[in-house]
Specification:
187 residues, mainly beta, nine-stranded antiparallel beta sheet
């Protein structure tokens, strides 16, 4: 299983926080922080791992809690740490005609991105960023299924919409490209 799209969905963070508060002020200062919490959907790319000559490993999407913290380094530049610890994915053994439940896996996806904020003092505050992502896994079942830790490039695009001077709604999309080593019974 390749992590190309799981991250693409940790990426489709339609939340790193939809309906999330962001701490901000009218004028940015070096000490400003933005804190967001919300719901993210992780949608892994699946079908890359062959379980047999006719069966591939499938992985479903899941949504869960996510959060991010951005430290503003200047008026327009920030450094963001994002984490999506709350997703659990069912795996299946997929053939041309059937899909059989296979097991579960729980990824923890984290990213560190440098961000550029286009309009940091406006009501509508779009931003983009690029950086590095990391994923580790736990809860792999059945016994014998293991996913290796992995690193990869990441990008984010989002917008904060000011409700008050210090409270914002946020919507963002995140792409994380990771390729984890997957083993089943040592293969």
């Amino acid at each position: 299983m390749s992590m190309n799209r799981p991250a693409v969905a940790a990426a489709l963070v339609l939340g790193a926080a939809l309906f999330a508060p962001a701490v901000a002020q009218e004028k940015w200062e070096r000490t400003d922080w933005i804190v967001r919490g919300g719901v993210s959907t992780v949608d892994p790319k699946s079908g890359d791992l062959g379980l047999s000559p006719t069966a591939r490993l499938g992985v479903d999407s899941d949504s869960g809690f996510s959060f991010d913290i951005t430290k503003m380094l200047s008026e327009k530049w920030g450094l963001e740490l994002f984490a999506s610890p709350g997703t659990k994915h069912s795996t299946t053994s997929d053939t041309a005609t059937t899909s059989t439940p296979f097991g579960k896996v729980e990824p923890l996806i984290e990213t560190l991105t440098a961000q550029y904020h286009f309009n940091p003092t406006g009501t509508l505050r779009p931003y983009v960023g690029a950086g590095l992502g990391y994923a580790q896994f736990s809860g792999e079942t059945p016994a014998g299924l293991s996913l290796g830790r992995t690193w990869g490039p990441t990008a984010v695009a989002g917008v904060d919409l000011g409700l008050t001077q210090r409270l914002f709604l946020n919507a963002s999309a995140r792409w994380v490209d990771m390729g984890s080593k997957v083993r089943f019974n040592g293969n």
